């Protein structure tokens, strides 16, 4: 998996970050030593977070962050200068991995500079470019990052946003590397983008730049300019890339545009609404690696590097041995001509001759005039033999390394399994509420208590959503989102409203008292905290004005296992949503069995955490109405 953003990735993000302009930085945090979190209020009044991993990546997120009780001195200083500041612009410096936020506060303009290269840095400068704060202070030959110094970015290596063909040709030819390495390092494109460019230009990536013709260099330049134009026109196609192996999908990359290399077999592409959303999902499961995993990955990478060098050495020696033998054979094929060339005075200096090869045409080779044709041929045969001996040694070493790599990889599988077993499950922002996914993919939320009822409606009910409530006192407020759980816009149909009404009815005081009750839905503008004169609205309650749209609902709920983003989740919701989404679930209705006992039985039968099943249970005793995909004698229907 990639662990850093490329310059092109950052270009796409900065384009998306333009939506933040005129928004405000409400607060700044440092959740971990190398992570920073900016709580933002967008111009639309929606709230969102900007998560930054120093030197690696950044993205917008809705994920809740666990904040330390005491802010660091660096964050305290940043808050004084940036908290409640207005974002005036967001830009990228010269297609480098540098993002600049211009923030205005109390009439003063500051620049928040995020460097995502090397070890990274977070730097704040004033309107004159003088450094006020920096997360890391350091001095280089070309620049100094220290309070009171004038900020300067690292020397730019190459900026494709402002380049012509002649400069590209000159720079490429002077690199003295193979094509992919020249693009990756000399032009600062990185390995992945360089390989994609070679693929699109239909040129082998390991071709030496010295061997490239004018038309081939022109093709490479044309591919790069087409990519740049696509970015300038913001024709993004953000996607998650999965590698498929043995029927399993592994998330391996995120890309802002379509890649030719990922359209081959063995990969699966999932399009996302935005590149920031893709990045947020890609890094959502990031956990700190333990020392064993770091050691394993380092050792495996080292062995693979050595193996790559050995393969290149083997190929080079095979080529040299074959070439030397071919030249010896060529002397015998052209024996008569060589005798004539060698005739005359002896003890002359070594000379170069040209002989015709039926397969390759004219070949240049060196001969010693003091030796006969046979002796000169023997020199080439002896050299081929010596190279072949070296080649045998390289092949033996490669076999040993293959054994070591297999052994190390096997140990790595055990370590990875151990790490994954301890890995905390990613929690979505909506999991703090009751939730389910409707048959139409709408995200539907409900409060758990008076406090979360208020919070849900105030923070998360938007203009196109719907408000749902059971027609009984003491029920949860429920919100039907006009989007899926990834915030992709969706229409709200009658099926989703019916399912939401049933959901709201289950988590009410009607459970255990009735077999069915009514619930209603209304538009967001009908929901208010403003009471009429002489009335009082208690915490968790809301005033509903205008027409209510009623639906009669059976009191029953299903609890089971679903799959979200390639990961299993425990969900509770109307039975109808499980039919096409889950293979294992139980349908519950009001009954006489203790809900916690039944939760334990379901958890055991499905090998699920008891606490997660318990959280989905209705508010009273239950009866198991039906079970699907579960075979356990301890669970019985009444």
Features:
34% helix, six-stranded antiparallel beta sheet, Helicase, Ruva Protein, domain 3, 638 residues, single chain, 26% strand, alpha+beta, ibrinogen binding protein from staphylococcus aureus fold, nine-stranded antiparallel beta sheet
The span between the termini is 50 Å
Q: How many domains make up the 3D coordinates?
A: 4
Q: Assign the structural class, choosing from mainly alpha, mainly beta, alpha/beta, alpha+beta, or little secondary structure.
A: alpha+beta
Task: Please tell me what the overall shape is.
Answer: elongated
Q: Which strand order does the major sheet show?
A: 4-3-2-1-5-6-7-8-9
Average of the residue pLDDT scores? 88
Number of helical segments with 4 or more residues: 14
Based on CA atoms alone, the radius of gyration comes out at: 34 Å
Count of beta strands: 28
User: Into which percent range does the helicity of residues fall?
Assistant: 25-40%
Oligomer: single chain
Low-confidence stretches: none
User: What amount of the residues lies in strands?
Assistant: 25-35%
- Characterize the biggest β-sheet: 9 strands, antiparallel
In short:
The protein has 638 residues and is of the alpha+beta class. The chain has 14 helices and 28 strands. Strand 17 and strand 18 form a beta hairpin.
Protein described:
By secondary structure, the protein is an alpha+beta fold. It folds into four domains: 139 residues, ibrinogen binding protein from staphylococcus aureus domain (ibrinogen binding protein from staphylococcus aureus fold, Roll); 123 residues, Helicase, Ruva Protein, domain 3 (Orthogonal Bundle), CATH 1.10.8.50; 130 residues; 200 residues, no CATH class. It is 34% helix and 26% strand. It contains 14 helices and 28 strands. The strands form seven sheets. Strands 4-3-2-1-5-6-7-8-9 form a nine-stranded antiparallel beta sheet. A hairpin with a 2-residue loop joins strand 6 and strand 7.
